[in-house]
Amino acid sequence: MNRPEDTDEGKTMTTYDEIVARVLAGAEATPQEALTVLRAPDEDVLDAVAAVARLRRAHYGTTVKVNYLVNLKSGLCPEDCGYCSQALGSTSEILRYTWLKEDQALDQARAGVRGGASRVCMVASGRGPTDRDVERVVGMVGAIKEEHPEVEVCACLGLLRDGQAERLREAGVDAYNHNINTAQSHHDSIVTTHTYEDRVRTVAMAQGAGLSACSGLIAGLGESDEQLVEALVALREMGSDSIPVNFLIPFDGTPKQQTWELTPLRCLRILAAARLLAPAAELRIAEIIEADPSLASTLTVNDLAERASTSTATVVRTAKRLGFEGYPQLRLALAAISGSGTENTIPLGVDIVAADSAGEVMAKLAEFESEQLKGTAQLTDPAALEEVVSRIRSARRGSSPRSAFRSTARRPA
Q: Most buried one in 38, 137, 230, 329, CB count within 10 A?
C-alpha cells in the first residue's frame, strides 16, 4: 500500500503512485520527491519500487539492453580517485597492463556480441587519451564496425581534449561514457587530481561532437541524500542519455576499503530515485514529433537533437528502435502522414501525400532525394516501415506516437 509520508512541517506528502502519475503525465520529478523515495521507511520500499517501475514499463517495457566491456588498459592511472583500485597509490591486487592489441580487442568484442551484447564499451584507465591513443582506439572501432556494423560502440577513455570527441565520432563511435561520479559539493572529498568541472566539460565535448552521452554516478562514497539527488539532477540537466548507477565495492588497498555504507534496501531506494528523476530521454524526441509531425519531417538530425536537448546519436538510435535503418527513413514515414490529404511540406522537391503507401513514399524519394536517401528503398524493410507508418498515422486519430517509442525502446537508465 502506498502510504503518504509526513514532512517536518507536518504536511502530508503525496503518495509514490501520485508522484509517478505526475511524471508520466509529462512533469519533471522534483528534488523533494526524489528525497521522499530515498527516505522511504523499510516497510514502504517495495511500494516505492513498484510505483516507480511504472515509469520503466512505460518507457522500456521489460526489455534489458546488454553492454559488454572491453578493458583496453588496466591500472597504471595517475589520478588519485579514492574509490578506485586502479588509482595512484592503490595497493589493490589487480591486473595491470598497457594497451591491448587490435586483434585482442576484437576477440573480446566478438565474445560480447556472441553473448547477446548490442553495445561494446571500449574502456581504458588513465587521466585521458593522447591523440595517439585515440588513433589506436579508432583502429579498433573500425575493425569492430566492419565485422559487426549493427553493434553500438561506446568509448570510455577519460578526460578528452579538443578534437578528440570529433575524431571518435568520425570513426564510428556512438557514445562516450564519462561519469561525474558524485555531486559537485562532494567531489573534492573523493579526488584531488581533477575537478568536477573537468568531468562536466568532457561530457559536453562528447555531446557537441554528436556522441550519445553516458554519464552516471557511484553511490556509497559518503554522500548525503541531498548530494545524491544533487548529482542525479545535474545529470538530468546535462542531458545524459544513459545514467549508469554504480554501487561502491570498497576494494582493499584503496582509501575507501571497508567503507560499507550500502544495504540492499538502500540500493533499491537509489535506483528508484534515479528512475524517477530521469525516466527517459527518448520521449523528448517523441513529444516533438507528436506536436507537429509535418515540421518534424523537415528537421535534420542535428535540428531534432537540438530541440530535444539530446545527442544526434540518440535521435538515430530512436529511429532504429522504431524499425528504420536510420533517421532519414523516419523522416520519410513522417512525410507520408504529415499532410491532411494534400501535399505535405517536406522540402525535398517531391510530391508526397498522406494517402501514399510506404512503398510509394520510398519510390518517390529514391528518385529525387539526395545521395544519402537514394538507397532508402533497398535499405528499409517495407513491412517494418508500413507498420510504423500505420502506428504514427493512427496516433492522429487520438492515440499518442509516444506509445511506439515506448514499445520499442530498450535502453535502461
A: 329
C-alpha cell at 42: 523499510
pLDDT, one tens digit per residue, over 204-225 is: 999 889 898 999 999 999 999 9
Tell me the pairing of strands 175-177 and 152-156: parallel
Highest mean pLDDT of the ranges 30-44, 322-336, 390-404: 30-44
Report the alpha-carbon distance of residue 343 to residue 335 in Å, rounded: 10
Q: How far is CA 324 from the centre of its chain?
A: 19
Q: Does residue 99 contact residue 72 with C-beta atoms inside 8 Å?
A: yes
The cell numbers describing 160, all together, are 578528452
CA 11 to mean position of chain CA atoms: 36
pLDDT for the residue 406: 40
Burial category of 188 from C-beta neighbours within 10 Å (exposed 0-12, middle 13-18, buried 19 and up)? exposed
Can you say whether the dihedral through the CA atoms of 253, 255, 258, 259 is positive or negative?
negative
Beta strands 175-177 and 212-214 are: parallel
Contact between residue 20 and residue 51 where contact means Cβ atoms under 8 Å apart: yes
